[in-house]
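Case study 2.
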Amino acid sequence: MKRLFLPLLLLAATGVQAQDKLYYDLFPLGQVTLLDSPFKHACDVNVSTLLQYDTDRLLAPFLKEAGLTPKGESFENWADLDGHVGGHYLSALAIHYAATGNAELKRRMDYMVAELKRCQTANGDGYVGGVPNGKRCWNEIKKGNPGIVWKYWVPWYNIHKTYAGLRDAWSYGGNEDARRMFLDLCDWGITVIAPLNDEQMEQMLGNEFGGMDEVYADAYQMTGDTKYLDAAKRFSHHWLLDSMAAEKDNLDNKHANTQVPKVVGYQRIAELSALAGRTADKELYDRAAQFFWHTVADTRSLALGGNSRREHFASKEDCQSYVDDREGPESCNTNNMLKLTEGLFRMHPEAKYADFYERALYNHILSTQHPEHGGYVYFTSARPAHYRVYSAPNSAMWCCVGTGMENHGKYGEFIYQHRGDSLYVNLFIASQLEWKEKGVKVTQDTQFPDSETSRLTINVKRPTRFRLLVRYPSWCRKGEMKAVCRGKDYAQTATPGGYIVIDRKWKNGDFIELSMPMHVTVEELPNVPNYIAIMRGPILLGARMGNENLYGLVADNSRWGHIAHGPLVSVFDTPLIIGDRKEILAKLENMKSVAGKPFTFTVPGLFSDKYKNLELEPFFRIHDSRYMMYWLSMTNAEYADYQKRVKAEEERKLLLDKRTVDAVNTAEQQPEVDHEMKYERSNTGHTHGEGWRDARDNGYFQYTLDTKGEQNLTLMVRYWGDENGRRDFDILIDGQLLAHENISNKWRKKEFVNAEYPIPSNLLAGKQTVTVTFKAQKGSTAGGVFHVRLVK
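Prediction:
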């Protein structure tokens, strides 16, 4: 066993109650106090929200799987993923307890750990999890059948939340039982994967598995036992790792939040391989993590810092779908991108990481919590004039509820970091730091972003020398930032995208006055220059567009309640920005502040008369409203041509959307799981920019779709219009034949075709759902099917 260097071994042994024993240059959350700001408000609201959840109901799946009597009923919503939110909730309790010291949070955390310990003891082999019928799954894997994971709803992803909850209960909350339980669970997991060869592991890792590589790397740091670092490497999905290390972007149409947690693990493996003296591993995993971060942060993220639509990374050719679809960036993705950013900053303390972190924190994470009732957001639509919906306690149990529970307790985690005698100030958030190791207190007084200034006051018991590094954000122009201490401006030699270094012996009461003038910029939607976002400094400016037809604003328990199903608005009925970039920027530079509304502006001449009084404000403050995030922007001549080419197609899409009762995007993980997909001998892929699924040689695939009680429905199926080969198949509704289809050489045109099959009323009578099956004939193929929908 290779030894970690001494400080890490000491941290593992002493049981210090702070997360810095895993992340060596972070300050414990208890040493960073949030002062009055939107972030403190969000943390306070979230504590109240967390205390509304029924802990026994969250624990029910774990007790059930351990053969113990649950004390509450499992939650219905996302029941096939039962247990995952319980793990998140344990993490959230620990994180918020560390941040606030709230005694009730600690009581709940300790209670959950004690109940999970009962489950682990009852299981008798170190296992503790809420995966429905999970023991069958794990036993099949041990027998050499890793393909069993595809018959479950992402079982490794599910149990990863239990791993992480136990780790966090120890690292943030100081619960020593949780540490032992976490390591016992790690040992159990090693026995599960031990019989698998590398090929079998790679097959299994095609199924979403969360950050299993990350937690095993953490176990190595906690113990110094290399078996855990080796296990972390076994959870490296080489399809992604090898491509990223070779700086090859293979992310098109891939499920985004399946990939990001993997790379959080790559960074941890790199970080700890460096400490273990495994230079080759360090370089490989670090290169992969850095390239992935660059790819997502710099080329695949929207202006708010979030990424993906319909949970998937768009191809370059399909980026228009960001503003076409109602399902925009997913909150979970940004939660994990911030973890990755923190980790890379620990290894490479560069301002570009803090710049991205700031943008994603303000514009996405902060915006995903309702500031009054505390509900969490799943999708943040980028479509003009659409809206978002929120969860409610003890109701919706989406993945973004789980990460949402955690997000708002971690705001103090990246404001400051330390490396030796250097203190980094990464974010401009009102806060107070106690650097106990140095006997230093730093108070940051700011109303940023409403104010472009901040004051850092240093309190020390005796004169103390250390380097203070203050980020010079990339959005502040060269020569404009000031950092004045005792009459000297330390920013004069610094440049944007770097750090201002103040190296001096500090006396009690010394302070630094920071000034960071902001300017307005526009950013194009990735690969779609006709859509722009408006930024002031790092803050995304949006606009309210009314509160009509906000269906399901606070979601119910329905399977698709996380999606804002209200009607789409035609882009031609939203504000347009006409002019070239030079003209637009000139108008934006003359924006006028709105009296009594901080960081809110009107822009004379930017919009048509209908919208001349439209107010631009921080996107993170817009709730319970339709909104603008991206704006269609072009010259008058370009717009006239655009109307001719696009308007009829836009109207057709909106009509189809109104007709649609339920729909499945085939080959996309979440929609297929949501519709209870079952299959045999089925394959997926992407062709012509869209995903397809087929079934071959007596195979089938099926979905359960919601009829909403409608009696007059048609099944619409999307095919490619130039298929050949044997493609005979049956389409069934609840096992009864709806149609026999043969699409080979049927249309003979290289474009998509939407075929409609009217459903007889007797197959719909009295039903809220129907199961639609595509079954191949012997020696033939059913599909490819590119989309399935029920329409009125």
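The longest helix spans residues 636-659.
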